[in-house]
């Protein structure tokens, strides 16, 4: 379900000033259920009104959303002020109290007969509450309020009726009533097509888009909408033909093709989307968005030459040059051409990737085999960027860890922690290096220090649980840490793997297998494969264990945990 707050944002504008505190001389006519005639005319009505408004504001300031909503809605019994009703509606919506919000919105709509925002909000909430009669009433009033601009009113109605999948049928039937009243208007059928598409009623969306085009041939928006339907139906060629039929200047037609490419990206049709960006560039070779989109997709598709060409052309033309250099470097790094990657990373002079490019340039030196030069570059960056020192220490620690220089990594982390005591990232990094040195108690202490700073950090919880699982017999204690980590991050493959491994250590083989199968499906890491294979081996499923190991070996033949496991268990 779409976030109701975003749906109501337009109708709840910030112009709601402080609500009037006076009592009306009489209740609102028309039987408004939120105004109690006796309450409004009671001698203490003014006191009650002020009490509930102030209590509501007090609750707002303290984050007590339900109490705020309840008090503001109760205040509506004593006042017919439309601003008060609007504020009560907004507060109830933000409190995620739909019934209270609907009560307030009904009052707002009744007290503001000329306010389209009130009707939009009330209609949205009526849809959410599946109140067909009130939805029809508010939609009719909304359309009447904007009768001089029916096309704009129909587009507004699409937004009002969107975002409630459980009420899709009611939303579409409500739109159908308006389409019937404007059957000769292309915009009405376009609106129905758009709403149907949002609710994944593709056949209905296609039919309505076709009807809109019959009434207004060549209408670009309707053509694009129909193309979007065809893309969702998997008929990309038909969608392309539709778009190719559009007239206009070359720049306008290029924009249609770019929009088509974005549709394809949204549908995970990346190869077709890259071709669509190329198609747009045939009409407008200077279009920056099309060339950049092509480059990014080519990177995703591992079409390196295509990506390199796109980003080099952008860089040479001075278009998004920093971004182009960064992604051109990424293409080279992905192909393990580290010297070329470093050359392009160093061309990134500014923008959002500037600092990361410097870090990656230093890393390229390490990957070229010059750890000393990489460390020297990181030290220079630390000197020039003291506010980013922690991140740079971490980058150096990661290089030392990868280089298996664990003593040097610990010494570096020691220096870093003297300057930044209690930094949880540095503590975590040092714990990894300490573990590899066999200094298990010290590694565990670092993780406990990290948890003292951030008690619910799933990374540290998982690391401590995994450490205790592997290096101690305190498996029940380890289970507690891993359970807390998994509660925080239930879909994290590393934590799922840890849970499987501790269950194995506890002797729960079937439960261990279940977790490890899940972890392996999500992330076939060689260490996960080692764990899963060992559990399968102990369960007597040895052919399956060998298969899991062999698949992992084909990708990472030198992985130490994987090889140790295989050597230990197989003859």
From TrEMBL:
Q: SMART domains per the record?
A: TPR (SM00028)
Spell out the SUPFAM superfamilies in the cross-references.
Answer: HCP-like (SSF81901), TPR-like (SSF48452)
* Keywords associated with the record: Signal, TPR repeat
Question: Is-annotated flag, keyword Signal?
Answer: yes
Answer yes or no on keyword Iron-sulfur.
no
Q: Where is the signal peptide?
A: 1-20
Per the record, the domain of life is Bacteria
Question: Which Gene3D superfamilies has this protein been placed in?
Answer: Tetratricopeptide repeat domain
Q: Entry's PANTHER family?
A: CELL DIVISION CYCLE 16,23,27 (PTHR12558), CELL DIVISION CYCLE PROTEIN 27 HOMOLOG (PTHR12558:SF13)
Q: What is this protein called?
A: Tetratricopeptide repeat protein
Please name the source species: Spectribacter hydrogenoxidans
Q: What is the lineage of its organism?
A: Bacteria, Pseudomonadati, Pseudomonadota, Gammaproteobacteria, Salinisphaerales
